[in-house]
Amino acid sequence: MKNRKEHIPFYVITGGPGVGKTTLLNELQNRGHATVPEIARELIKEQQDNNGDALPWKDKKLYMELMFQHSVESFKQINHSSNGTDPIFFDRGFLDALCYASLEGIPIVQEMRTTAEIMRYNTHVFILSPWQEIYQTDEQRKQDWNEAVFTYNKMIQTYRGYQYDLVEVPKAPVGERVDFVLDFIKKH
Predict the structure, then answer these.
(1) Where do the NadR/Ttd14 AAA domain residues begin and end (predicted)?
(2) 9-35: per-residue pLDDT in tens?
(3) pTM for this model (two decimals)
């Protein structure tokens, strides 16, 4: 990995399911910023298309392992090609896979913990809180509202456990959310 000092321009946008992360990232991309799509959603779609077992409603452990592995690979590829200064926004990070493991009672192997401690995103992680008015389920998102809230709380615990500072993105129209994120980065 490239040697980076204090400022790592890799920003995670996370939270429970259905809180507007992807909409926020799409608008960041529309404004010319680099984004990395959510690995979990891509993995679920790929597994559904191929009748695979690595799904949260089939083989949860395999799903978590592949989600973590794909997220780490994505991080490494971006890290290798990044100029090191322009912000890059990730729709979830590899810590989200560890959060999922914790939610499901799946043991986290030491190698994954070590990877999460060594490979670092920017210290500031943007988190979106549950927002019932916009919450919807679909073919890849099957969690009910209570699971979404529980996931959000577990996400806070996971990221704080790895010494990240969480920045709550306000519930607002997507343009205002993007302005909030970009203004925060400029100030910090």
Answers:
(1) 11-177
(2) 999 999 988 888 999 999 999 999 999
(3) 0.89
